[in-house]
Every structure is written in structure tokens, then in C-alpha cells.
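User: Could you go from structure to sequence for me? I need the amino acid at each position, not a summary. C-alpha cells:
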């Protein structure tokens, strides 16, 4: 039976109340270990209703088994910390228990240490996090503590802490516990001590870069003092920047090299700008000059201050300014999409003659850059060369003409000398007269070829079907080329028209066919071909033309033409034939006729593969029906004497022409110029039937006279005559009948008959 409770003394009761207020749970456990007697605070700590006695097992069940026995006799004596789960709320509470032996069992005290335990856990977690960060961080980290030594206060320091990255960045292993002077030399140690000592004394953090000479590492460091100062500790955070320093050094060196290179290039550019013989000008889109180089002034004499701000066209001769302005506007507004433009301009100079400058103008970044080359002397030299070449050509031409005409004159002179012999038989006299007549024809043909080469012959253009003419010429070529040469003609099905002198066209084709015959040595195939319409291709460096052209080709199967001769075959009197087998004027006539008719001649040949000559002439529309003849020619009837006004400035020719007309039974009146002819016509009591006028005369020419007569005397026929006239070469006879010199009495009689419609002559 339990003993009755004793009355507690007032002191004991007060102590119990204080312990309960302080939250101290008091308990006793019987030796038997089955019953626990707690105070009210104990019950509150465990979430139990206050009771005088509790089963020990029930209280032990609230404790975590992992923490071991808490209250029973198996629990360790003295102190223990364990967890319970409160009976009322289920909350986990950390308890600190003190257990001591007592009479009849055990006595103990329990208090709530959850808050303390939480602080410890937080501190532990922080320490673990710091340690992890400390060891895993990429930067090297250490804590140094200054020491006093034989050399004085703070004359060394020891490494208190260092992380794993310390060795990686500094190159020193196991540095913890080592002093600075053990690691580096005395001179280097003094530098580190001075830096970190100032941090310790002032408390001011520093950042700096410094080489760790001992290991050859270049470090970037940050240092700060660890408080309080009495600890005499400094924390150092650093990184190995050796590789970066090397890169920076290389970059710095490269930058310095680049700067030097840029400086040199700028110096070279400035030197080129200043010393270049090329004229350079920079303008805005409006053509106003923003910069010029010294060559501008050297070439043209215009100082730079007088040039800047003025338009570039102000320095060009007036007649070329519009061309330059249009070109600059096209480049500036983008309508001209070329990357560069070349213009040859005549630029004004302050002194002397204008300078000829070849400009290359390039648009870039909204500006126009002009580069000019003074080609004045080059053009003078080219002109001198052209004149020299002209003289050489004239000399060659003169020599050829002199040679051929001397041969012709020899025949005429010898024939005339024999004709003067009174005893000369009639048969021989007729032979010599025929020789003179034939020689005159040959001389006329020679001059015609020369004029054709010079493109000065008087043409009689007409519109004709080339196919039709080629068919006729093809048949005639059989007799020209011989039986051993086969003529093949390839013509299109439809008609093809050109406007040219039909006689000269046929002569050109015959000349080409004869050359082909000679190239084939009289045996082979001559291919005559017509193609239309075609564009005119570039020939001998000349630009082509996009219009419609008729191409007549004459191809042979001969030996071909050497490349060295291709550029000379059209020169007058140049021939590759043997002496006496060609005059060298056939191809000159062909190219002269082609050029004068608005076309050209191309030749392609390979040695051993024959040659092909292609004559290009502009194609024209088919003509309308030919108008009726102006006058009907009277057929039959007696010869009619005509009153003819002869206009000729040459005395001998005028007399000879008058004599011919008189011998033909006409009544000629001779005047020496156009003005006299007009006066004679105005004062004539009897009207004239025709006017026969030379073209080239001093004062008013024959064509001007003919036009004036057409206005004043529209019914009066006019016949023009000329051996050569550049006006006739440009536009045939301007609608008038033309009789070419030299002419015969029969030709003169025929042309008068045609224009008057009367039978003339005896």
C-alpha cells in the first residue's frame, strides 16, 4: 500500500511552482520501472492531461525509437536528447533529459530544447553549405593570418584555410599551415605583405593583378579584412589569368601592329593621293566638288580653294557639259546601273590649251569618285601616228595609181604617136583607136575602184530584190570561174530587198568570186549563200548593229588566207597574187561599196580550210510599183538639134564638150560658172532644151544650180557630170541625171535623148 502523501512545506511548494512556470518537467520512476510520477509541466511537454501517475510504457511510446530509451531504466544515465511526438498535436518536440538515481528508483528533469536544436541545425547546414561552396568554387580562396616575427610586427602570415582551387590557380599544393616566407623569396614576400598589410590596417578591400613569381602564374586578386581586426585575418579570392594575359598581350601586340599598319596605309594612301599622276575628284550627287588631289592642280592649273564647291561640269568645255551632267545624274539617281562610267572630256585649263582627260567615275556611299587620266599627249601622238599612217597609205596609193596609170598612158601615148603617121594603114589605125578606147575604159574602171575604196564614188541607189540578182549573177559566174569550179547557190524562198547601186553590187560579187576562183587555182566549189534578216555582228573591232541586214556569203574551198594577211586584204593595191595577176583593188571596191551603202564586209578563213567573205547590206521594205516615166521617148524620127547650155569651169573640158555637142549636131552655149549660166538663161531670147553642168565648180556648185533651175524652170532638163564629188558620194545625184566622167560622145548623146525625149545626134 502506498504511503500517504506528505504535506509539502511552503518552500517546497514555491520551488515547485517556479519549476512548473519555467517549463521544467519533473518526474520520478519507481525501481520497478512501470509507473512514472510527473509534475504538470511534464504532462504539458508531452501533450498529456496532468495526472499524478502515468504508465511508463505510455510515455516511452511517445519517444522516437531511433533515439533509444528515453525514461526507463535502460536509458543512459545523466543527460540525453531525444524526440517525442506530442500526444495531443502530433508535433515533434526535442527534449533534453537529466536522469539521476533516487531512493526507490530514479528522478529526472525534462526541458524543451527544440529551439536550440533548430539553431544548431541551421548553423550546421550553413556550415555545410559554406564548406561545399568553399571547396567547389572555381576561384582560388584562402584565409591568411598575420604573425609577428623576428623582423617585426606583422612581418609574415600563415595560411589558415585554402580551398581545392587554390592549388589549381596558384600552382602551390598543401598550402594550409605554410607561412608566406616559406613559399616565396624575401623580395616577393615584401610585396605581398605590403598589399595585404594595408588591407588589414585600413579595412579597405582591394582588387589588383600581380604575378606570383614562384610559380610563374599571373593572378587577378581581391582581398578584404575578416572582422574583427583583432583576428588579424585577411580573406583572398583570386583567379589564374595567365592565359588571358597572354591573349591580351597578343591582342595588344596585334592591335599595335594593326594600328601601325593602318597608320602606314593611311600614310601610303595620303602619299598616293598627293603624288599620283591621276587626277582625282570627289563630288556629291549634285556634282559639286568635295575634294581634289594635287594632280588636279598640276594638270589643269586650278588651285584647290577655287575648285571646291563648284560643279565638275564648270571645268569642261561648254559643248560637253550636257553629256557630263546627264552621266552624273544617271549615276546619282540610280537610273544608270553601271558600277563605273568612262567619259572622255575636254577639260578647261587656267593656262594653255584645254586638256583631254579620260575619266572613270564610280558611285560609292552616296558620293561620286572621279579618276582622270590626262591623255592629251597620247591623243596628239595618236593623231600624229594617224597622219603618218595616212601619209604611208597615200604613198602606197600614189605609187599604185602612178604605176597603173603610167601603164595606161604608155598605151595611149604610143597609140597616138602611131595614129599621127599619115602612111598608117586603116586596119592598124582602127587597132590603135580601139586600144585607146579600151585603155580609157580601163582608166575609168581604175578610178571607179579607187573612189569605191574611198567611199567617194557617185552611186545610183535603187531598191532591188537580192535573190533575183543573185540568180542572174550565179548563171553568169559559170563563165567567170571556169568549168572546173562548181557554183552552188543557196537562196531563201521569198524576196529580199536592199537599196544600193545594183551595178556596184554586181561588181562586188564578181570581185569576190574572182578572188575565190584564184584562191582555188581554178578548181573547187564556190558556195553563194543569202541569209536574211540578220543583225550586223561586230567586225574588225567595230561595234555591230541590231537592225535587219541581208548577208550575201561567197565561200571557197581554196587554201585559205594567212592570219597575218587578213587585216590587210582590203588595203588598196595590196595583193597576195603574183605580179601581173591582180591590181589589189578588187576587195577595196567591195569594202568601199559596202561601207558607203551602210553595210560592211566580214571575212573568216583558216589556212587549208578556204575563206568565206560575207557582204552585209541593210534590208529595206519591198518597193511600191515604179511610177510612169517622166517623158515618153520618141521612137524613130530624124535627129533633132538641141540648144544646150554647158556649165563647165575647166577651159579644156568646156571646149572639148562644146566640140562634141557641135559634132553631134547640137547648138551648145558654154558658160564658165553657175552664176554666168543663170544670167545667160535669164537673158536668152531663145529657150534652151537642156542644161549640162559640172558638179564641182568655184562658187555655186552644180547641184545647187540644178535645184535652183528646178524651181525657176521646172520643165528644163538638167544633166550633171562629175568624176568625183563628196556630195554625190553621200546622196547619189539628188534626183538629177548623172553622167560620170570620163564619158563618150555616145553616152552624152544618149543621156540628152533620155532627158529631152528627142532623138538626137547625126
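Assistant: Here is the amino acid at each position, in order:
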Amino acid at each position: 500500500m502506498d504511503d500517504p502523501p506528505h504535506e509539502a512545506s511552503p518552500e517546497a511548494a514555491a520551488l515547485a511552482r517556479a519549476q512548473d512556470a519555467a517549463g521544467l518537467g519533473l518526474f520520478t520512476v519507481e525501481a520497478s520501472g512501470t509507473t512514472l510520477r510527473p509534475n504538470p509541466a511534464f504532462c504539458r511537454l508531452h501533450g498529456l492531461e496532468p495526472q499524478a501517475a502515468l504508465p511508463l510504457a505510455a510515455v516511452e511510446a511517445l519517444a522516437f525509437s531511433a533515439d533509444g530509451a528515453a525514461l526507463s531504466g535502460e536509458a543512459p544515465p545523466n543527460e540525453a536528447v531525444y524526440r517525442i511526438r506530442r500526444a495531443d498535436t502530433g508535433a515533434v518536440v526535442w527534449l533534453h533529459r537529466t536522469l539521476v538515481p533516487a531512493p526507490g528508483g530514479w528522478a529526472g528533469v525534462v526541458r524543451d530544447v527544440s529551439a536550440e536544436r533548430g539553431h544548431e541545425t541551421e548553423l550546421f547546414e550553413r556550415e555545410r553549405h559554406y564548406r561545399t561552396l568553399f571547396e567547389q568554387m572555381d576561384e582560388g580562396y584562402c584565409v591568411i593570418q598575420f604573425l609577428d616575427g623576428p623582423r617585426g610586427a606583422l612581418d609574415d602570415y600563415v595560411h589558415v584555410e585554402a580551398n581545392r582551387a587554390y592549388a589549381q590557380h596558384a600552382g602551390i599544393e598543401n598550402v594550409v599551415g605554410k607561412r608566406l616566407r616559406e613559399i616565396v623569396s624575401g623580395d616577393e614576400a615584401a610585396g605581398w605583405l605590403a598589399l595585404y598589410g594595408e588591407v588589414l590596417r585600413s579595412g579597405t578591400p582591394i582588387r589588383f593583378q600581380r604575378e606570383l613569381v614562384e610559380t610563374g602564374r599571373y593572378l587577378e586578386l581581391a582581398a578584404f579584412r575578416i572582422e574583427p581586426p583583432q583576428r588579424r585575418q585577411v580573406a583572398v579570392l583570386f583567379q589564374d589569368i595567365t592565359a588571358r594575359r597572354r591573349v591580351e598581350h597578343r591582342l595588344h601586340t596585334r592591335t599595335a601592329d594593326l594600328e601601325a599598319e593602318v597608320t602606314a596605309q593611311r600614310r601610303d594612301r595620303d602619299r598616293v593621293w598627293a603624288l599620283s599622276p591621276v587626277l582625282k575628284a570627289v563630288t556629291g550627287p549634285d556634282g559639286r566638288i568635295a575634294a581634289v588631289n594635287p594632280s588636279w592642280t598640276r594638270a589643269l592649273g586650278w588651285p584647290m580653294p577655287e575648285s571646291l564647291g563648284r560643279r565638275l561640269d564648270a571645268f569642261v568645255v561648254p559643248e560637253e557639259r550636257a553629256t557630263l551632267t546627264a552621266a552624273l545624274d544617271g549615276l546619282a539617281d540610280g537610273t544608270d546601273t553601271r558600277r563605273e562610267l568612262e567619259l572622255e572630256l575636254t577639260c578647261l585649263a587656267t593656262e594653255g590649251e584645254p586638256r583631254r582627260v579620260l575619266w572613270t567615275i564610280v558611285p560609292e556611299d552616296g558620293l561620286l569618285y572621279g579618276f582622270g587620266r590626262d591623255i592629251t599627249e597620247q591623243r596628239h601622238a595618236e593623231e600624229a601616228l594617224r597622219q603618218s599612217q595616212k601619209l604611208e597609205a597615200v604613198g602606197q596609193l600614189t605609187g599604185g595609181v602612178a604605176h597603173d596609170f603610167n601603164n595606161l598612158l604608155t598605151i595611149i601615148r604610143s597609140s597616138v604617136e602611131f595614129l599621127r603617121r599619115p602612111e598608117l594603114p586603116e586596119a592598124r589605125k582602127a587597132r590603135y583607136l580601139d586600144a585607146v578606147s579600151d585603155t580609157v575604159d580601163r582608166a575609168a574602171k581604175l578610178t571607179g575602184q579607187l573612189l569605191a575604196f574611198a567611199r567617194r564614188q557617185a552611186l545610183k541607189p535603187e531598191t532591188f530584190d537580192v535573190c533575183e540578182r543573185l540568180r542572174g549573177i550565179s548563171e553568169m559566174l559559170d563563165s567567170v570561174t571556169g568549168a572546173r569550179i562548181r557554183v552552188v547557190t543557196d537562196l531563201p524562198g521569198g524576196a529580199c530587198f536592199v537599196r544600193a547601186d545594183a551595178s556596184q553590187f554586181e561588181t562586188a560579187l564578181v570581185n569576190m568570186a574572182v578572188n575565190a576562183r584564184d584562191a582555188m587555182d581554178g578548181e573547187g566549189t564556190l558556195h553563194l549563200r543569202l541569209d536574211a534578216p540578220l543583225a550586223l555582228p561586230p567586225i574588225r573591232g567595230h561595234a555591230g548593229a541590231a537592225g535587219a541586214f541581208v548577208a550575201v556569203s561567197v565561200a571557197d574551198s581554196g587554201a585559205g588566207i594567212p592570219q597575218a594577211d587578213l587585216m590587210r586584204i582590203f588595203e588598196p593595191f595590196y595583193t597576195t597574187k603574183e605580179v601581173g595577176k591582180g591590181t589589189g583593188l578588187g576587195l577595196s571596191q567591195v569594202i568601199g561599196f559596202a561601207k558607203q551603202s551602210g553595210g560592211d564586209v566580214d571575212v573568216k578563213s583558216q589556212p587549208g580550210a578556204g575563206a568565206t567573205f560575207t557582204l552585209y547590206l541593210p534590208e529595206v521594205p519591198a518597193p511600191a510599183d515604179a511610177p510612169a516615166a517622166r517623158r515618153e521617148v520618141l521612137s524613130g524620127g530624124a535627129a533633132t538639134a538641141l540648144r544646150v547650155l554647158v556649165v563647165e569651169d575647166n577651159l579644156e573640158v568646156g571646149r572639148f564638150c562644146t566640140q562634141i555637142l557641135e559634132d553631134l549636131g547640137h547648138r551648145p552655149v558654154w558658160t564658165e560658172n553657175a552664176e554666168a549660166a543663170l544670167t545667160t538663161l535669164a537673158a536668152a531670147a531663145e529657150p534652151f532644151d537642156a542644161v549640162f553642168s559640172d558638179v564641182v565648180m568655184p562658187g555655186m556648185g552644180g547641184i545647187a544650180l540644178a535645184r535652183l533651175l528646178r524651181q525657176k524652170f521646172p520643165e528644163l532638163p538638167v544633166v550633171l557630170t562629175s568624176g568625183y564629188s563628196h556630195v554625190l558620194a553621200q546622196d547619189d545625184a539628188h534626183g538629177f541625171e548623172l553622167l560620170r566622167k570620163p564619158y563618150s560622145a555616145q553616152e552624152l548623146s544618149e543621156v540628152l535623148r533620155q532627158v529631152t525625149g528627142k532623138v538626137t545626134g547625126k
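One structural detail worth keeping in mind: Residues 1-5, 626-638 have pLDDT under 50 and may be disordered.
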